[in-house]
Amino acid sequence: MSSRRSRVSEEEINELISKLQSLLPEARRRGGGRASAAKLLKETCNYIRSLNREVDDLSGRLSALMATMDHNSAEAEIIRSLLRQ
Amino acid sequence: MASSHWDSAFVSKTTAEMLLRMPQQQVAVAAAAAAVTDFDSSSSLDTGTDAPSADGAMVRSPLSSELHESIKVQNQNQHGRVDHKRKSKDEASLGIRDGKSKKQKRPKGGLKITEELRSSSDGYVHVRARRGQATDSHSLSERVRRKKISERMKMLQGLVPGCDKVTGKALILDEIINYVQCLQNQVEFLSMKIASLSPVLYDFDVGIADCINQPQKLIMRSIPQPLAYVDQMNHLQAKAFDSGTTTFSQDEGSALQMGEQTQGFVDQIGFTNIRSIISRPM
Known about the structure:
- The complex is a heterodimer of chains A (85) and B (282).
- Chain A is mainly α.
- Chain A contains four helices and no strands.
- Chain B is built from twelve helices and no strands.
- The radius of gyration of chain B is 31 Å and the shape is elongated.
């Protein structure tokens, strides 16, 4: 009984793990061969950290750009409308 | 999906007392194991006592059938030894404990002795084999592997906001996947916004490198801007379009359809080029 249940969730978990693998930037290189879960989780950790860094970086640049622009200029208007979405 | 199957009621009243002493996350696994082993009340799983480290938590994966079986088998062999074990259960585990070593193997076969492997900073993953568990190399390495995975899951739980409220491998993985996708979208969106700051966009067919100098001149002529801004823009352009997988969604497309006011100078610079490229599916 419990073994049947755990087998079902085992499949789900494997599916989730493959999905995660496909999200990672390494996915293309691997060519579909399933890496070990531990490795995947570790790469996910690093990937999340690097994504966070990138977001911070880009946000910083965006705000810096905004700061250098003339407030009344046409481009500023464009940006404002974009950000308003 | 219900994560409760390994939280579900395996608890027998004999182990209730022991469970009270243990931190919550150990309860489920310990309970399941205890139920299967059928030990009497005074036998303990040695879990709460001497594993105070953060990694003292048990492996949270669903107990596989192999574990159940091995426990059952040992149970039958164990009965003779239970008394002997019981009185010195703490000492046994303490005596074997050697915080530095990776694995300690006792002679195989019928001897099922508690082994303790503490997670330490020497880089090894230490695994605690509970009483009555198999100590052959396969189970041990399997246990080590599971322990590694569970450690990493915990790390991820710390990284992903809101993930520590969730229990169950599947749900946690689900959260992680959502978060990664969310972050990726954020990065994409931000790059797009930064890219679209530049009213001068390159003709992609020609290639970015060829165009970099040209647009600069155009900008200088038509729009008065600080030089720093222009340099920054070019730099950003290169970076933004380097990030491979940017897709141009409908939202972005419509946002770039600018109002009357700006249309003039934009066309001047050949913005329509990029607009047509953007609306093309990539």
